[in-house]
């Protein structure tokens, strides 16, 4: 099954160009590109990955949540800037997501073949859904378990951010710096 056949790749390419413009604005403000981590959920993760791999300056990494890589013909090392050829990628996927788990697994395999350093995690479906907050409150019995699982996801992401950016301090402190920049950048994508 081709999970990518319905996507409008021209729109994704336009989004990648827009992300590159936003990255350049952040670099012009003095933010070190190697401390920038791009991230997205589902198709947003695809845009983040493609923007990072095609960007001419070294980035800190990419966080893809319940996402997919898509076709890799245009992501071959000889056609990409060398700056992000060994890009660290954090992939987290729900076990029963709108994007099939096998699409995430295939993407991880493709990224590793391209030379990226990929960290792969799976989590229960309800915490990787856009309705995770709603799902967490459907009944008291699942609420505590979902909160614990979400804390695990947050801890895993914080550890990734700390590792790839070399940020000192606790996991929470490490995650605060890149996330605060992401908040500045992401609203302009809408």
Secondary structure topology:
Blueprint lengths: L8 H20 L8 E5 L1 H12 L6 E5 L22 E7 L6 H14 L2 E7 L8 H5 L3 H26 L5 H15 L5
Parallel strand pairs: 1-2, 2-3, 3-4
Helix pairs in contact: 1-2, 5-6
Strand percent estimate: 5-15%
Q: Helix proportion of residues, in percent?
A: 40-55%
Structural class: alpha/beta
Mean pLDDT: 77
Taken from the alpha-carbon principal axes, the silhouette is globular
Summarize the structure in short:
This protein has six helices and four strands. It is globular, with a radius of gyration of 16 Å.
How would you explain this protein's 3D organization?
The protein is an alpha/beta fold. Helices cover 48% and strands 13% of the residues. It has helices at residues 9-28, 43-54, 101-114, 132-136, 140-165, 171-185, and strands spanning 37-41, 61-65, 88-94, 117-123. The chain has a 4-stranded parallel β-sheet with strand order 1-2-3-4, sandwiched between helices. α2 links the parallel β1 (37-41) and β2. It is globular, with a radius of gyration of 16 Å.
Highlighted features:
alpha/beta, 190 residues, single chain, four-stranded parallel beta sheet
